[in-house]
Amino acid sequence: MIDFISDIFANIGYLLELINCLLLLNGISKKSKEHKVFFVYCLLIFIIQIITKILFDLSLNNIFLSHFYFVTQFVLLSYFYYLLLNDTFQKKLIKIVTVVCLSLLGIQYAVYPSKFFTFNLFEIFIMSLPLMIYTTFHLYNLLNEKKYFYYINIGLLLYLFGSTVVFLSYRLLSLIATKEIINITWSLNIYMYVIYQLFILKELIPKKI
């Protein structure tokens, strides 16, 4: 039953992603650079997830795609927030953190190449935590600025926090929890992603950014 409900929500998530990509694409040539970067991010993540689903349905290994997912998300959203944030210190921090995090991850894969074929918790952590910090920066800046990308930012913060907790706790739960609890916990990530897509939709429909 849990798997059935999760599949339904996953398909809803794919549909919402597609709708959001189309909305972002509409009139994109006249939109801001931030808008264009966010569109590329949404499109690439959508493609990665569809390929992941296809491989899963074919009973083929798709774990390696998680690395493309997290790195793509980190790089594009870091650039997105670099464009979005106006504070000089915040921009400089994004530059430094991006280089440091990608370097650390590259070193890890160089030393332990087998990590590429496993679920890399270190990667998840260093590719997600900085983005949560950037979303917090933007929320703080919005106190005195126009609410630009407000719902997208809120949705992203909620999703990153929730999904990071789910991913990082998965290995621990696999050791101490029942299969049903593990499935429920894993399904939470799907539900949170649907909520994230709804926040994006909320941003796009009324404001047409």
TrEMBL record:
Signal sequence interval, chain numbering: none
Keyword set includes NAD: no
Keyword annotations from UniProtKB, A to Z: Membrane, Transmembrane, Transmembrane helix
Transmembrane regions listed in the UniProt entry: 6-25, 37-56, 62-81, 93-111, 117-137, 149-169, 181-201
Protein name: YhhN-like protein
Source species of the chain: Flavobacterium dankookense
Taxonomic path: Bacteria, Pseudomonadati, Bacteroidota, Flavobacteriia, Flavobacteriales
